[in-house]
Amino acid sequence: MSDQTRVFLLILVMMAVSSAIGVAAVGILYDAAFAEEQQRLIEIAESRARLITAIARFNATYATSYPDGPKAAVLSQIRNAQTPPEYFGRTGEFTVAERKGEYIQFILPFRHAEAGASKRIPLQSDLAEPMRRALAGRSGTLVGLDYRGVKVLAAHEPVGLLDLGIVAKIDLAEIREPFLRAGIVVGGTALLLIAAGILIFFRVSKPMLQRIADSEERFRSISQMAQDAIIMMDSEGKVSFWNNAAERIFGYKGSEACGQELTGLIIPERYQRRHMTGTEDFLRTGQGLLVNKTVEFHGKRKNGPEFPVEISVSGVRLGGKWNAVGIIRDITERKNAEQKAHEEQSLLEQIIENIPHSIFWKDRSSVYLGCNRNFMRQAGLERPEDIIGKTDYDLAWKATEADFYRKIDNEVMESGQPQQDIEEPQLQADGTQATLLTSKVPLSNSQGEVTGILGIYADITDRKRAEEELRAREERLRLILASTDEGIFGLGPDGGCTFANRACAELLGYKDATELFGKKMHELMHHTRSDGTPYPAEECPTVAACRSGKTTRMGDEVLWRADGSSFPAEYRSYPMLRGHDTIGAVVTFRDITERKQSEEALREREGLLKLILASAGEGIFGMDENGRCTFANRACVEALRYQDDKDLLGQDMHTLIHHTQPDGRPHPKEGCPICQASSKSEPVHIDDEVLWRADGSSFPAECRSYPMLRDGKAVGTVVSLTDITERKE
After folding, report:
1. 720 has which bridge partners?
2. CA angle, 397 then 402 then 406, to 5°
3. What is the pTM assigned to this prediction?
4. What pLDDT score was predicted for residue 517?
5. What DSSP element (H or E) covers 585?
6. What is the dihedral of CA 23, 27, 33, 39, to 10 degrees?
7. Which range is most confident: 142-146, 286-290, 599-603?
8. Assuming Cys at both sites, which of 117, 121, 498, 501 could form a disulfide with 490, CB separation 3.0 to 4.6 Å?
9. Which residue stretches of 380-422 are H helix?
10. Helix (H, G, I), strand (E, B), or coil: what is residue 228?
């Protein structure tokens, strides 16, 4: 090979190397610029979305009087803010749109209106892809067609509060243009260098190498000065570039990181298998879930802890193999701030919604700005938001009540001083009249100016009603104690009288109940037994009830009057409990002298009745309304040949003595004339009937059945029977 050939081949090799380096540098710079432009568009879209959301929330609270509502106020403010329009670059613009049925309706003027684009684009059109995603509630970036049909790089962000979409975009051609120009310049320069190299190769080779080194150094300097980590992964999945920010964020020095497997270095263990699979797919195809996107993820520091990151990945093809460049931002502080704000907001909302009181707040004109659910229910609203923009005159309360509420509002806002424990009436949405205990405090802005009022109240209707009921019960109790003929008194733990009614004083022979107060009641009225022996207090059941907490009932005791006379009494002692502690007893008693006399007379009448029944020659028995035997005299038992009346008591008399007719056929109870006296409530006389004895024999009998009536209603039957065997013979 001749020297000329060698020189020519060397020049070709140098040209190839120079071209490769130039293309790679332009490609890397393009990807970095693309990612940087992508991030800038995201920040524009996110910041505008946050600003519009904040304006919407402010207007929802303070611009409720705007003619077409808070949303219209926001749209008006957006249009005013974009007059004159604010653009960036030669083709960049910021657009806002909303969905109108099956169309996308753009709100702001187009920068490229001369292109004839319509501000109303069908939702299913191929145009305006970024805005379509924003209106679908999706955030992110993409390369797609805008409303003109031009391919753009766009960041899209939804504004959920207003159902709006925001897009910040720039023509892809504008991003590529400087790099295309650079490519043309590089190509032209390469041609010139080729021509010059052929002539003065050795003279110009050194400056060319120096320029390449300078270019690499500039790229490295830019990368090292970046605040975000810039990491490059080679075609084997290993780290090939690691800037200073990466050292600060992840804790590895560049010398430690370069050459290491990226997956094991910065990816948390729980994501490593999925990351390795994604890396293999990327190295094979140049595509992946994270490529050309900005997403939130988790990284791992050198000492192990995970932390949130925002990552943007681009693919670069070098030497026929795919390499990846990632720009990573540590968003720990941002996430912490967002979490803290969310927790504080959530805590405040939980407190407001769960506090057992009604809460509301108004502006300077006493127009409602918000309330909690307790207030919402009492006002008859479906949602807390429905209160916004209303006044007290728009709600269920009476006009006089609304006047009073606004009067107190004005006093609080004018004085700047709170008012507490205001008792107010309120007619609620369900028609009930309530009583409220309200406190109101002024609300101020950062300059100390009163801007509204905060109110909180408790519904004390039940408490007021309970107080009224308590007073009524106390009055009823006083009347009952004064009206009853039973003696009633109370005992303290020491056995002293705490109260006594009029009947108690009269029964015990005192002029007034106050004579008993504080006295030991056992010593006054229960000191001696009926046989004249002393009755010690420690044996007294009433005194014991004060100590044991058990109810005591005594049916026949002797009590003593003030004049020394005694009388038979029935009394009951009930413990007074506070929680689990016995604090005394309530004793009721009555003079049972007349009752004992009545009981004695009743016993005498019962003895006479039994004597009459035992002496009667006829069999007599009684039945209840179901036909069961309630009594039977001796003559009845003997006639039916039973041993004792106990053999009959409780038995169905028809089944025992009247079950079969003379011809041997069964005798249904429904047709039994003896039992019909009760159902007909009139006497029944049967001259000749067959009855059956205990031994199975029968005999002819004459029966008379008389109904027993109570308040005109039959409650049983008395039956007399006479054996007429001899008479028939």
Report:
1. 620, 704
2. 150
3. 0.34
4. 92
5. strand 581-591
6. 180
7. 142-146
8. 498
9. 399-415
10. coil
> What does the block give as tokens for 207?
């400056």
Nearest to 56 by CA among 146, 154, 159: 159
CB atoms within 10 A of CB 491: 25
Separation CA 195–CA 189 (nearest Å)? 10
Kindly report the CATH number that applies to the domain delimited by 616-728: 3.30.450.20
Do the Cβ atoms of 402 and 392 come closer than 8 Å? yes
Q: How far apart are CA 520 and CA 511, in angstroms?
A: 17
Percent helix, strand and coil across the chain, each to the nearest 5: 45, 30, 25
Beta-sheet strand order (sheet of 368-371): 368-371, 358-363, 450-459, 433-444, 419-427
**If you classify domain 484-596 with CATH, what class do you get?**
alpha beta
Q: What is the pLDDT, as a whole number, of residue 3?
A: 46
Q: How far apart are CA 660 and CA 142, in angstroms?
A: 105
Which one-letter DSSP state was computed for residue 666?
B
How far is residue 3 from each of residues 12, 641, 664, measured CA to CA in Å? 14, 157, 153
Find residue 97's DSSP bridge partners. Answer: 106, 165
Do the domains spanning 484-596 and 616-728 agree at the CATH topology level? Answer: yes
What is the Rg, in whole angstroms, of the alpha carbon atoms belonging to the chain? 53
Closest CA to 588 of 576, 572, 574: 572
Q: Which two structure tokens, joined as six digits, stand for 254?
A: 């560049």
Cα distances (angstroms) measured from residue 669 to each of 152, 626, 682: 104, 11, 18
- Greatest distance between any 2 Cα atoms in the chain: 173
Could you give the CA distance from residue 401 to residue 393 in angstroms, rounded to a whole number? 9
Q: Quick: pLDDT tens for 403-432.
A: 999 999 999 999 999 999 998 888 888 888
Read off the pLDDT band of 443 (50, 70, 90): very high
Position of tokens 């009073």? 404
Closest CA to 326 of 293, 369, 283, 356: 293
Which tens digit of pLDDT belongs to each residue from 345-378? Answer: 777 777 777 777 889 999 999 999 999 988 988 8
Between 3-62 and 70-81, two packed helices, what is the crossing angle to 10 degrees?
A: 140
Residue 74: how many other CB atoms lie within 10 Å: 25
HSE-CB of 383 using CA atoms within 13 angstroms: 3
| Structure tokens given for 723 | 């054996």
HSE-CB at 207 with a 13 A cutoff on CA atoms is 8
Q: Please, where are the H alpha helices in 63-128?
A: 70-81
Please say if the pLDDT value at position 521 is more than 80. Answer: yes
Q: Which fold has domain 11-178?
A: Beta-Lactamase (3.30.450)
Q: Where are the domains of the chain?
A: 11-178, 355-464, 484-596, 616-728
Question: How many angstroms separate the CA atoms of 670 and 655, rounded?
Answer: 12
DSSP string, 353-405: HHSSSEEEEEETTS-EEEE-HHHHHHHT-SSGGGGTT--GGGSSS-HHHHHHH
Question: pLDDT-based confidence at 84, cuts 50/70/90?
Answer: confident
Tokens of 300: 């791992």
Q: How confident is the model at residue 156 (pLDDT cuts 50, 70, 90)?
A: very high
- 355-464: CATH class: alpha beta
DSSP classification of residue 496: B
